[in-house]
Specification:
Blueprint (H helix, E strand, L loop, with lengths): L1 E4 L4 H4 L9 H10 L4 E5 L9 H13 L3 E5 L5 H14 L3 E4 L10 H18 L2 E5 L6 H11 L4 E5 L11 H8 L3 E6 L1 E6 L6 E6 L8 H8 L8 E3 L9 H21 L2
Helix pairs in contact: 4-5, 5-6, 7-8
Length: 264
């Protein structure tokens, strides 16, 4: 299934725009584009919402016919327990996270212990825990960690754009992560010369116009054959003013959805 993430609404949610979009507003905008999956990922207001506000948001998603996934950072027990509870409220079947959280950087042994401790609860709940490929940890090490824990509910959220920062090639990341794949983050990326031709900026690009060989990802990881969701997000730089930035963010979402649908 193709979905949108809160990262596809990054600037629309931001306090840099005059009227930031609410979570339910993002749900509604998602359905307006005939998309039925939404990933609430690294969305700080979610953790400040009361139980009643959470139930209202979950009810709004259900009324719109949306499937919800969740996303956070960190694998320490309180965080994973909290998001498993949120998954119950939203009837979510996937939580994306990262090994390193805002306040925790476990060593490999500690990370394995934490994940082993957490795995039974995710298995009982029928919820997948997908650890994102990221520059802090080599993809090969992340895959080995998942394989050592050996839970059927533990896998990888594949985002090959992130690993370029540790000089990994995106195609290598895809090939390593494919066997343990649980989720895909979809965005294109490119290098641009900085002003004066001194160095480069690595940033987002409209889908299909950057360096991401998405056909290689589809052919290698086969997410659609395996029932693995593809979730759209963006790395869109601020465009100088709210109107230009929001307009371009919406245009990138349309472009990405058109691209993905053309590959179905």
């Amino acid at each position: 299934m193709i979905g949108l993430s809160t990262y596809a609404f990054f600037w629309q949610h931001s306090d840099r725009v005059p009227a930031p979009l609410s979570l339910v507003g993002a749900f509604e905008a998602t359905r307006e584009q005939d998309v039925r999956l939404f990933q609430i990922c690294d969305f700080a207001p979610l953790e400040r919402m009361s139980d009643e506000q959470l139930r209202e948001a979950a009810r709004a998603a259900r009324d719109l016919g949306l499937t919800i996934e969740l996303g956070t950072k960190g694998i320490e027990a309180p965080r994973l327990e909290r998001f498993l509870r949120l998954a119950e409220i939203f009837d979510a079947r996937l939580v994306r996270s990262m090994v390193f959280g805002p306040d925790s950087r476990p060593n490999p042994q500690q990370a394995e212990e934490w994940l082993r401790d957490a795995a039974p609860a995710f298995e009982r709940a029928g919820v997948d825990l997908a650890l994102e490929t990221y520059e802090q940890i080599a993809t090969a090490d992340l895959v080995r960690l998942v394989e050592r824990v050996g839970s059927p509910r533990l896998g990888v959220c594949l985002d090959p754009a992130n690993v370029v920062a540790r000089l990994e090639h995106p195609r290598d990341c895809v090939e390593l992560a494919a066997p343990v794949l649980k989720n895909v983050h979809v965005k294109d990326f490119a290098f641009d010369r900085q002003d004066g031709w001194v160095g480069f900026t690595y940033s987002g690009a409209p889908m299909g116009r950057g360096l991401h060989d998405y056909r290689h990802l589809l052919d290698t990881a086969r997410p659609r054959e395996r029932g693995i969701n593809e979730v759209v997000e963006h790395w869109l730089p601020w465009q100088g003013d709210p109107t230009s930035t929001v307009d371009l963010e919406r245009a990138w979402t349309r472009t990405t959805l058109e691209y993905l649908r053309s590959t179905l």
